[in-house]
Amino acid sequence: MPNFCAAPNCTRKSTQSDLAFFRFPRDPERCRIWVENCRRADLEAKTSDQLNKHYRLCAKHFDPAMVCKTSPYRTVLKDTAIPTIFDLTSHLRNPHTRHRKRIKELTEEDLKKIKERRLASSIEQLNTKKDAAVEDSTNTNEDEPQLSTEEKAYREYLRSLFEVLVMLGKQSIPLVADKVSEAEHMTNNFQAFLDYRMNAGDEALKKRFEATAVNTEYLSATQQSQLLDICENTVREEMLMEVRESRFFSLVTGDLVEFGNEKHLPLFLRFVNQQNVLREEFLDFMLFDGDESELVERLEAQLTDRCGLSMEDCRGQAHKATGTSTTKMKAVALLLLEKYPLALHMPCSHLALNIHLANNLPFPNVQVVMETLRRVGAFFRTPFTQDELENAVSTHYQKNEEKATALKQACSSRWTEQHNVFDVLLDILPSLLLCLDSIRDNNDGKFPEAATADAYSIAETLADFEIIVTIVILKNVLTFTRAFGRNLQGETLDVFFAANSLTAVLHSLNEVNDNIDVYHEFWYEEAVNVADVMDIPVKVPRLFLRKQRAADMGEIQEEAYFKEYVTIPVIHGIMQEVEDMFSETNLKALKCLSLVPAVMGQMKFNTTEENYADVYRNDLPNPDTLPAELHCWRIKWKHRGKEVRLPTTIHETLQLPDVKFFPNVNSFLKVLSTLPVLKLEDNTSDTASERLRVYLDSMPAKQWNKSLAMLNINTHVKHDLDVMVDKYCRLYPEDDTETEAEAEAEAEPEAEAEAEEVAEEDVMK
Question: Region Disordered: which residues (predicted)?
């Protein structure tokens, strides 16, 4: 429940401001002075306990010197703080307005009493300051706990440890280096950096470890885990503070990541920060285990219990699932949508719509194609492979240099993630197989064995007629959604027109479905021609033939088989996905983008946002005044000066200084901005999901670490080493840490002795 400021003529509340709010004091005398300074007659009859429980003042009414920020997460008042800054006149400019917080008119006697009390208070404060100055000359401030020399040294030691861990995370350096050969031992990078710091003169570390036994690790595995947890949680909490201040957010999930043989789901949050900038930040990894309902419960617990967010404030969700996890994540999205109707399920702006639609089709042949595409994309990021592909393109299209140049350009950078991926794949398929065969032969020996094995595996998959038919069908069906998907990832105006063009897209898909026989005939002929070029036999899949013989069914012709088991399922699946992904509520939300002035101008200022505003009515500060405010908003831009340019994006609109005079529009735009389908304003190559991919690509899978990944992805999030030290000292006192370390040290020889006994018993047997 939000806190409201009790001061007259102050409308601030905790959900709209990052200011601190303070309760009225329980001390009757101080509480009376607060009420007196507020000049609210209606509060004078209330007791100090009632005022303390139900009323608060925001920090704007106190001298800044009276407000203390004890940590990044807590703001307190000094014990002697009295509110002195009030607006007691602005209500006079509009005398007909009703004021709930009426200001008390002071008589001459009241003024005389206040002056006497303030004079006495000033004398008392002066004496208090003198006494405090004398006390400070001999003692330090009692608010700050006294630390012994050992405690200070221990905190400096912890600070060095945290500094090394943060550096390891930022630089993508694993805690433990991999073996170079069987004869070499695994190297502890953490310990190596601590050695380096001690050699460079870190006295805190030297004193701590100078008595450590030779050939023993400085820190136990338990201590390392504790340090990593503190680092991770501190960075996460810093980011979550911004999300809570913003209130509304959207949830985005990524591809599964495996840590220690357990699959985890990456979680990202989209929100608009206090500077009105759209951000997408990495939150955490969630264990991907159990059925759909268990995943939803775990997800809710992660966001609410651990992160302090409310799922009621979630305004969108997008899931970039692939492979077998696709069906489960679709079920998770539906369950979340049932519980939280405003958590609209939409495609993510990071992923081309056509790839998203194909990923969501549950058919094995389509999933094989999509998995092969991902393997191809990863394969051609390895050394020399891209040059080999370009050489193969030149060889295959040596009589058509223009075509060869166009294909080289098309497949030069991450073409497997583009809207026209299936068109490019079909054009490049003969050259691609030629390239893979060359790498597999490896006549010049420049490719490692792993690369030649991957080339063979990918080539065998692509040289299958069922896969070729599937690629051709996907290319032709998704042609109807390509422009629509490209507009969704475009500017605000493009997204608005895409929302209004969905009917045409569905009409085209329905027309294909109604004339499926004609379309399939042309598409099947195209697939046969592509197969002929590469000498791939046209045949029904072996598995289907075996089942057919087992069931004693009659033979089926190739064209009829692929129509029934590929073309019809794909067209029906794509139509269903489009309808589910762009429901009526989703389209209403996207049509509200007409609030952006450039879209208004394109529509000749003849827009009707109020018809769609009911989706977010409860999110607006004053929903009853929305129609009048929208009218004023349109008039403002319609009758602007000739030199005034219409803002083209939500970001530009929110940066306008006068948007605050339109509170409903301001709130509306902030909520819309969080929708996952809208592209980020900043450089999309540096998104949190991209930074996660770079981290995972930078080291072997067995060296991945969840906490270091968190630090690496969120390097831009500020962190305070002293806060980390404070948390660690509070959660893991030094005595407890030493006890755990001793217990582990004692357990190691026992484990070694047990292992030797077992080995001796095996030898005796």
Answer: 735-765
